[in-house]
Amino acid sequence: MLEETVKNLNYFWEELTKISIILQRPAVQIQILSLFLSILLALVISQWSWTQLKRRFPKLRQIDIRRTKFSWQQFGLGTVRYLLTPILCLVTVSLPLIVIRQWGWPIGYLIAGKKILVIFLFYRLFLLSLYSLFSFKAVTYYRNRLFAPIFFLFVGGRILNWFFNLQQLSQISLIDLFGDPITLEVVFVIVAGLYFLIVITSLLEKMAIQLLSRKLLPETRAQQAFALVFRYITIGIGLIIIVGYVGVNPTALAAITGGLSVGIGFGLKEIISNFVSGIWLLFEGALKIGDIILIEGDWSQVTRLGIRATTVKVLENNFELIIPNQVFFTQKVSTLTGTDPLICSYLRVGTNYNCRVQQVRQLLMQIAQQHPTVLKEPAPQAFFIGFGDSSLDFELKFWLDEPLLHRTVTSELGDLIQQIFDENGIEIPYPQRDLHIRSDGNN
């Protein structure tokens, strides 16, 4: 292992020495400096031009991310913005290329740089075509996470290939694992492969849902179940492809698998249980996003259904809780929106004994029927429920189709009841107590 490390260090030293010798050549220095100054000049001109356009057309540069596509004016401005820089770079690089060629100096680096700029131009054209077809927000998201990393990796590899032999560089061994060397190529493939696997899986998942949701999967529950299953199957297939490309030693794979099986049996039992519970919840449809449930003594709203855990938002204080999925199978959970979103609410009120029961009941039903949020069907009802110590007790029963409005509607009905009772001379009494004073016969 020590000999291998020394060998790798010697290789790096030799390559760095070669690069330093190459960079000391005047022809190479002129080409690199010309390339750098040409690109810098193009960037300055492009930025100045874009500043002038923004001043001339201040409204067109404001993109509404809620729109599916650009307007034709915005697309025209975006075309100038996206293509001006690469076109100016090609023009400014071509000028020193012509001059140096007339002098008879080498122009290999300038030609290679011009080829990269041509690729940059086509990359910008590709992004423009996406912006014309899809929403600004979606294209920007995948541009930053997928297209731009691929482009910069490609360009970085081309530039490194100017000075290094990437084929030899990728075969440098870092460590040995079970007798097999872990090279730079293996590390790069694993890191880049996992990153792009996750991003591409997300893109394919959204595309599949859009294609299937219109006819085959109209329900949200089915879409969520399909999305999670599709995601994990795609990631699993991607991992198999990466492992197959890298060429994992069967002995190492058996050792890792054996260790994982022991870990699953002891330490990962809860994770597997949550995983299975999450799949069962999605396919069973017992929970869905937006449901109001009673969990751990708090009324909460389901905001996200995951394969391992469910995220809920506590309605009282807006806290978020991450609940393991197996909790929904091991504990009793109450829901207000399971099969029927309607909820029944009650409001109790007392009047003095001088009131007529029938009049109070009619006023209560009238108040509930006039409230815009209270449902007309089932119709609200008012009941006389008994004779209290100091009041006639009534109960107003009404229905809502939005559980989150329960407190608001109850408060508004209370205000209306007090106002209507005052207008009709109906009093809401205070508790009354009779005090009897007994005196001793000697006083």
Walkthrough of the structure:
The structure is a single chain. By secondary structure, this protein is of the alpha+beta class. It folds into 4 domains: 170 residues, no CATH class; 95 residues, no CATH class; 39 residues, no CATH class; 81 residues, Alpha-Beta Plaits. Helix content is 61%, strand content 13%. The protein starts with a helix and ends in a 20-residue tail after the last helix.
Short description:
About 60% of the residues lie in helices and about 15% in strands. The chain has about 450 residues and is an alpha+beta fold.
Tally of individual domains: 4
* Proportion of residues in helical segments: 55-70%
Which descriptor suits the 3D outline?
elongated
Number of strands: 10
Q: Can you tell me the residue ranges where pLDDT is under 50 for at least 5 consecutive residues?
A: 62-69
Strand order of the largest sheet: 6-5-4-3-7
Q: Give me the strand/helix succession.
A: HHHHHHEEHHHHEEEEHEEHEEH
Cα-based radius of gyration, to the nearest Å: 36 Å
Question: Helices and strands: which structural class?
Answer: alpha+beta
Tally of contiguous helical segments: 13
For the biggest sheet, the summary is: 5 strands, antiparallel
Mean pLDDT: 78
Tell me the distance between the termini. 114 Å
